[in-house]
Amino acid sequence: MPFDDPYAAFRVHQPDGQTGALPSEPFQDPYAAFRVKHPSGRETAAPGTIEDIGKAAVTGLGKGAIGLAATPSMAAWLLSQGVDQAVTAPLKIGNLIAGNGYTLPEWSARGAEAAKANRMVSSPEDIGAGDIQRQVERVTGDFYQPQTMAGRAAETIAEFVPGGVIGRAANIPANLAKFGLLPGVVAAGADELARGTAAAPYAKPVAGLMAGGAAGMALRPSRGGAMVSEYAQGMTPASLDAMEALLRDAQAIGLPLTRAEAAQAVTNGATRLADLQHLAEGHGGLKAFMAQRPQQIETAGRQAMDQIAPVPQNPSMIGPAIGEVASGVVQDVQGAINRVTRPLYDRAAQASVGQPVAAALAGDPLYAQTLQAIRRDPSLNRTIANLPDDSPGVIDLVQRRLREQADNAAIPGQASSSNLAAANFQDARTAPIAAAETATGSRPGVMGDYEAARAMQRQLRERFLAPIMSGPIGRLAQKDIPTQKAIEALFPKNPIPNSEPEVQTAIQALATRNPWAARQLVRAHAEQTFNQATKDLQAGANQFGGANFAAQLRGNFQQNANLLAALDALPNGKQIIPGLERMLQVMEATGQRYPIGSKTAFNSERQNMLKSGGLLASGAKVVGSGGLNLGPMVRQKLDGWTAGRNTEEIARLLTDPAAAGAFRALASAPAGSAKAAAALTRLVNLGTKTPSQVRGPLDEQGNLRIQGRNQ
After folding, report:
1. Model pTM?
2. Coil, strand, or helix at residue 697?
3. What are phi and psi of 393, to 5 degrees?
4. Distance CA 362, CA 251 (A)
5. What does the pLDDT look like over 668-709, one tens digit per residue?
6. Tell me: the pLDDT tens digits for 122-132?
7. H helices present in 196-268, as ranges
């Protein structure tokens, strides 16, 4: 194809159209700007496209970083420009009205000069990205200038990268694509299209700003979504995972929670999502969801009770069955103690105190009366029927009956004749005990069989029987004990601290002898608490019954420890506890909401936010009113419509299982949902560049001229 003479534009044209020789003055090489100057002064060939792209990209990254550093000065300059316009605009208008002879451009120039003397920052060239770049270039030399279209595009795209990588690490890939690459590509394309035109200095920043702004607007959440993001601040990836686990547990037991309830539960109230839910509920956004709550609590609670034990056919028989089992436990312990000490008692019974001592003992009317009563009662006399009255075995039984009569007669804390009788019965035991010990070999420093048998009985009773009698088993060991009293004996309202081992031992003992009775007693306690906590209120069904139940069943720290100990001691306890714990956690979470009508001041403040539809909705209000204030009725209808849409959006984000990803993204967003803040900062820096900062034509040395710079 014909060769395009690169010097044709510089040849002398003759009138007949012929071209002559080149002019005699020195010729300026049009490609000098694209040649790479070596420090020695000689020139080398222009770099290839790939090399140009690489160097230009490095320059672009540097400019992008400088632009971020210049953000404060850019903001100050923009503010000063706004102040200038606010000050000079009224004067311009007044000048035109007064007709003082100045034209509008003349007055603008005069006003600008006057304002420039007072403003803090004269232009972004004086202080800002341009100033920082000049300081850097003093050290590094002039920034590399791209020499191909691909290089120019690479530099432009790279300028947007630093702003796109600022933010949370997890969001960097998305932000880089949306706020770095996208506006960079658009700005590079606009720059190429506008080259050589009057719009060239402005094409890149304007196009990039519009592209980045469009991305920011596209990603900007709705007003409802923005409120979710604001009120979810404080949640971490770990707490979001815990929230989702609790939501799954709630769904599994048929008691679905809102995300606000679950978030508050797992963060111990660290977020403000309960406030947002309260606001949505106040506008009816969760009415249908919450209307099912009482029945869901009822169903989930009854299912949990069935895991402990089946529904009893005769609940009134639970108490007597427990009392019988507890009495059997006491008798078994007593029988074991007697079996251990029986050999010592049997040896002691073979001795004799002698008739004189026996006669002296019978001289005490209480002793004689008790001995005669034993001999007349076959149930008592049976064990000593073959022993004479002077046997230590007979004397021991008499002294024990005297002790029982003393215990039965005593009325603690009262000055009565019964207590006097008890003291006399107790005193009557002294002589028989001493006589039996002496007869069986006891003397100072030596313990005979009878004394040893009594000492062993005392030690075994203190070690084994006394704890049982003073604990739950002892309180339950009553004939025909009512079920309610049995529940109170095992699960008192204010249990003794550290009493969970006693409860566990008691349930284990009961379950060993009667598993049905043990399981039914624990169920009766839990179900009675559930019935009381979930009873309907005067205003209707109790939506907070689940939280009340969890609080009452767990009670204080010791009550909860005793409950877990009792469950663990049941035959199927280790399988029951995890499910019951999950159910109680879900029930507790249902209390992470405010009753309707509370927090009035908060509602007044936040209802206005629901009525706000953002920039587009606000503009619609203005346009729809022709720039005038809307009538009260129209404005009220529009506000109500906007609030309804925002309420529906909040309700969807809090309850819809399909909105899990959207909620997590909103809760993970930085405060204020300003994902594009860093990128838009860079765009503003580009947008505030003036033509004096744009590279110009070639200078005398063949380099690109930079106007407005000190060389």
Report:
1. 0.60
2. strand
3. -65, -40
4. 79
5. 876 544 443 444 444 444 444 433 343 444 344 434 343 333
6. 444 444 566 67
7. 200-219, 223-231, 237-252, 259-266
